[in-house]
Amino acid sequence: MTRDKKLVRALRGEPQEIPPVWLMRQAGRYLPEYRSTRSLAGDFLSLCYTPDLAAEVTLQPIRRYDFDAAILFADILLVPHALGADLSFEPGEGPRLSTVTDSASLSSLKPVEEIHLTLAPVYETLRILSGALPAGTALIGFAGAPWTVATYMVAGRGTPDQGPAHALRTADPVTFDALIQLLTEATISYLSAQIEAGAEVVKLFDSWAGSLEGEAFDRYAIEPIVKIVASLKSRWPEVPVIVFPRGAGSRYAGFARTTGADCVALDSGVDARWAAERVQVDGCVQGNLDPGHLVTGGPALVEETCRIVRELSGGPHVFNLGHGVTPDADPANVHRILEAIRR
Ligand code: CP3
Question: Mean per-residue pLDDT for 47-75?
Fold first, then answer.
């Protein structure tokens, strides 16, 4: 049963004696078995859209590490792709997309109902996973939050400071707000279909929330997330929602209360003791080991892991990294984390 799974119990506010563990980007290039399935698929998008292969790479880290959760293998940029943006992943360069910079390029996107034509293989991946996961492993679906997805759509690529999105929201707020509105509706529809296909938990990645300041944070990070969480909760009150407002800093305090999220994911910049006092009071927190420790290993890896678990042991906690596993991580270091937490 979903509600008995360790991850789900923690997300619903029950502290677990040993916290559930999973890692952002737990499937990826640091695993040799991922690299071999990836080369079988050809490019990254084909891997995302081939259900058998996407399910296979989702399961690889579960077999190797027995994590408490599997996260659907897909990407936050599949939503813009399904809305009609051209998308490619150039090896070594990251994503490239056609851009939305004015009302003409915005209106050339498809209506929300049509995204499911492109995204149908993702739902099939979830159906395969629902039948293939070990009994105690929870299945997490996800999407990018509207602000973060918009930063890629406006710039056509990843940017260090999200400059093009900030420029558009200042110069042409009508177009920018309409893009956020479209992404909010698409995200609700996409996550609803993921839940119907078997996702037991959903997560919103707002990886660039930290570049929004003052009122812009409320308008572009908080508001769309409030709408998405409320809409999902009205249909599936039991499905926990995790939100990752990366870089939110002091605005992590109160974030769960304001948005209705069941759990906030902490980036590595957040002090665990501060989070225990200011964030965990509102419910579950997830995080937040610096992913660099999976590269460097040594005593610091275990010390930091134990410190985070200790600081957050007074309330519900899901152990994770503060950001994704990097391609240069040593797979053996993941075993060391698990030993430290579960022993
Ligand atoms: O966490 C998981 O294991 C599930 C799968 C997942 C991927 N991307 C697979 C992926 C998830 C949840 C994501 C989220 C994602 N994608 C985010 C938000 C989280 C974050 O990291 O801040 C963002 C911003 C993206 C966009 C994206 N996808 C970029 C910028 C890149 C290129 C950079 C890189 O690491 O190569 C990707 C590609 C990508 N998405 C890979 C994987 C495993 C690497 C592709 C490859 O195999 O070459």
Answer: 98
Angle subtended at Cα 53 by Cα 76 and Cα 34, rounded to the nearest 5 degrees? 80
pLDDT on residue 28 = 95
Q: Is 66 a catalytic residue?
A: no
What CA–CA distance (Å, rounded) separates 27 from 56? 10
Residue in 320, 314, 340 with CA at minimum distance from that of residue 270: 320
**Residues, the chain, total?**
343
Q: What is residue 23's three-state secondary structure? A: coil
Which protein residues touch ligand 1 with a CB less than 6 Å away?
A: 24-29, 38, 44, 71, 73, 75-77, 89, 94-95, 142, 158, 205, 207, 324
- What is the distance of C-alpha 116 from the center of its chain? 20
CA of 44 to the centre of ligand 1 (A): 10
Compute the average pLDDT of residues 17-34: 97
What's the pLDDT tens digit per position in 193-217? 999 999 999 999 999 999 999 999 9
